[in-house]
């Protein structure tokens, strides 16, 4: 239920057409940047200002342009969308986006079936970094 196109998030928050164009343009330019200092962009603001709508709109644009590999939206209203599911959800979506990763991801899971009970650091290493290498 945490992906941008999940039924659980339907209807998702979206920007009204023609609004937030400057912020979305900045976000999309940031995502397309190849500068090493551009690895992280912090979208912040007061409650209700539209951060989720901006993120949703950006995720949909990325999907349309085939930029999107994985998304995860945390939600206060869904206790299932929590930090324990972040890495496995991203790993699953990456395997869907990059089918050759399935073999390496399966090998990691078969090698240690308890990975999903490990710390986030171990999960990131075994389910994301190692398979991507």
Automatic annotation (TrEMBL):
Q: Where is the Nephrocystin 3-like N-terminal domain?
A: 33-129
Q: Does the keyword Repeat apply?
A: yes
Quote the Gene3D superfamilies the UniProt record gives: P-loop containing nucleotide triphosphate hydrolases
* Keywords per UniProt: Repeat
* Classification via InterPro entries: NPHP3-like_N, P-loop_NTPase
Indicate whether Ion transport appears among the record's keywords.
no
What is this protein's name? Answer: Nephrocystin 3-like N-terminal domain-containing protein
